[in-house]
Write a structure and sequence with these properties.
single chain; about 450 residues; alpha/beta; Immunoglobulin-like; Rossmann fold; nine-stranded mixed β-sheet; five-stranded mixed β-sheet; 17 strands; about 30% strand; globular
Length: about 450
């Protein structure tokens, strides 16, 4: 490669990093569509975008010429470590794209170490840059290691939290909601008291047929809310099949439990709520809300106490992992695109979270990033991994910019229980979407012996 081409290649990856950033939640201007070319990076056929130890990363740059004349271009492909971002290698190809045709330019790269890699590809000719695209690929992700950040009093801290919760009388209340019930199930509004004597609420659905029902406990995403228990048929992205009992819990600050804690409209205010003190941090109470949900289910005679599964996405996935670690009443855990994983690294990668914490530090004199990392270590799912003893199903979106798989596997790889993961190569924070949700309940049924 001559010096000019090499300089252009390095320039391209810089342009892409600056234009794309690493945040999914911040609104940005849409990239102007190229009228002449349609481009995208695609994974090798038969792969999920991750590759085993010793095998190369394989991918293609697909280019469609939408014009009625041929196009000549130079394709630049750059490989870099995802985090910290470190440029590794450039590859260059000259291509000829016939009119109204689509071509694929194949690439492969042999990584030197397990990691997630950022691939950026772009096309250029005499008129300038015609396209730029980026993609994340994984290599030997089951071999990735992340150091624990667990403090000496970690276990005692959570034992004390459970003890404090037991001192709070739950005061369970159930209100039947006829307008939400059907011939197949009955729906109740549930109220109960949790840590700090805070009243939290949720929705409880019980099938009208049969006895001793398996139950799904749902935890919400950050800023998400449950307003009813959805059926899988009606809500393929969020619902639960009607032959399961379901408890959809709104932790403090969410849904009909918002009256307890009222963060501002920006849900990032929940992330930083009382972050200056790990004893009072909002997630201590939120985790105890999840434990209280299990306390409620233990009082219900219609529930099969040996078939309790917890599930959720993003924050709900992280809370599922922590709850499973802390409470042996959980029999299965299904965590999708989990949040609260490898928090120190997460806050380096995800710009809007980093910005929210920076804003909070500035408002609280004497607070530092070092102290924030110390406080968050009590809530980092990787520090709970050793306590998870039941079967686990985890899913990630390989292109997720909110809860990057790099952080999720920091926890997953430390879990010693029976476990399975699914990577959706083109998935972002929605992960596997409807497809994975259908699969999740197939997995749960198999684990619970419900497969006919």
């Amino acid at each position: 490669m001559n010096r000019l081409l090499k300089g252009s290649a390095i320039l391209l990856i810089g342009i892409i990093w600056i234009s794309v950033g690493y945040s999914q939640t911040k609104k940005k201007k849409k990239k102007a569509k190229n009228k002449n070319l349609e481009t995208k990076i695609i994974v090798a056929k038969g792969t999920d975008g991750t590759f085993t130890l010793g095998s190369p990363l394989k991918f293609s740059y697909q280019i469609r010429n939408k014009t009625y004349g041929p196009i000549s271009a130079i394709i630049y492909c750059n490989i870099a470590h995802l985090q910290p971002r470190k440029f590794i290698k450039s590859k260059v190809r000259k291509v000829w794209i016939p009119a109204r045709k689509t071509i694929k330019v194949d690439f492969q790269y042999f990584p030197s170490s397990p990691d997630f890699y950022l691939v950026s590809c772009g096309a250029k000719n005499y008129t300038g840059w015609l396209s730029n695209d980026y993609f994340v690929l994984g290599y030997a992700i089951d071999k990735l290691k992340a150091n624990l950040s667990k403090k000496q009093d970690f276990s005692q801290f959570w034992k004390n939290s459970l003890r404090l919760l037991r001192q709070v009388k739950p005061q369970y209340k159930m209100y039947k909601r006829k307008q939400l019930s059907t011939k197949d199930y009955t729906v109740y509004l549930v109220e109960m008291r949790s840590l700090g004597n805070m009243k939290i609420k949720g929705w409880y659905r019980v099938p009208t047929r049969g006895r001793k029902h398996p139950v799904i406990v749902q935890f919400p995403s950050l800023g998400g809310s449950f307003y009813n228990v959805q059926s899988l048929k009606d809500r393929p992205r969020y619902g639960v099949p009607t032959d399961f009992a379901v408890f959809s819990l709104n932790i403090r600050g969410h849904g009909n439990s918002k009256s307890v804690i009222k963060p501002q409209e920006d849900y990032m205010d929940f992330l930083t709520y009382n972050l200056k003190n790990h004893q009072k941090y909002v997630y201590r109470g939120a985790v105890m809300d999840c434990i209280r949900a299990l306390d409620f289910l233990q009082t219900r005679p219609e529930i099969d106490q040996n078939r309790i599964a917890v599930e959720g996405a993003s924050q709900g996935g992280g809370l599922s992992l922590i709850t499973t670690a802390l409470d042996s009443r959980v029999d299965l855990c299904a965590a999708d695109v989990p949040f609260l994983c490898d928090m120190s690294r997460l806050l380096k990668i995800v710009s809007n979270m980093k910005k929210a914490v920076n804003k909070y530090i500035k408002k609280n004199q004497g607070l530092s990033w070092w102290k924030v990392r110390q406080n968050l270590s009590y809530y980092d799912t990787k520090n709970f991994a050793a306590y998870i003893k039941v079967p686990l199903l985890m899913s990630v979106g390989l292109q997720d910019l909110t809860c990057p798989p790099l952080t999720c596997f920091a926890t997953y790889n430390r879990i010693q229980a029976p476990k399975t993961y699914y990577v959706y190569p083109y998935g972002r924070h929605e992960g596997g979407g409807k497809k994975h949700r259908r699969f999740k309940f197939q997995w749960i049924r198999k684990q619970f012996g419900m497969v006919k």
